[in-house]
Write a structure and sequence with these properties.
The protein has about 130 residues and is an alpha/beta fold. It has a single domain, classed as 2-Layer Sandwich (Nucleotidyltransferase, domain 5), CATH 3.30.420.140. The protein has four helices and five strands, in the order βββαβαβαα. Strands 3-2-1-4-5 form a five-stranded mixed β-sheet, sandwiched between helices.
């Protein structure tokens, strides 16, 4: 199976794709009117079998200012695609990848890879 990882943001969406059991950053696009068209194209082109989206909750499970918007995005994604969409804890992903990226560099795609890798590691016995 090939997975698409997503780090949702109100301005930018980071993407990662798995190869075997390893997640790789693949890019960042704007969160705009073309988002779902871009996703549909990527799903077909990359032969994606499932999508993993960060849930935006804190380590304590608390919502933040974009949680409702991220949840609405996940629900729309489920309706717009015919492949499984799952959410996974993303708490700490941006902080963790920020430790390895220059301060001026956007690292939303690295956060997406971190989120996807977390999912792949947790579900190693279930992932093809």
């Amino acid at each position: 199976m090939k997975y698409l990882g997503i780090d949702y943001g109100t301005k930018r969406i980071g993407f990662a794709i798995s190869v075997e059991s390893v997640a790789f950053p693949r890019g960042v696009i704007g969160n705009d009117a073309m988002l779902f068209e871009t996703l549909a194209s990527m799903i077909i082109k990359e032969r994606i079998s499932a999508i993993v989206v960060g849930d935006t909750l804190s380590f304590g499970g608390y919502e933040n200012p974009i949680t409702k918007e991220a949840e609405a995005f996940i629900e729309k994604l489920k309706k717009e695609t015919d492949i499984p969409v799952v959410s996974v804890c993303e708490a700490g992903s941006s902080v963790e990848v920020g430790r390895y990226a220059p301060d001026d560099q956007k690292h939303d795609d690295s956060a997406a890879a971190f989120i996807l890798q977390r999912y792949l590691d947790i579900n190693a016995s279930k992932v093809d």
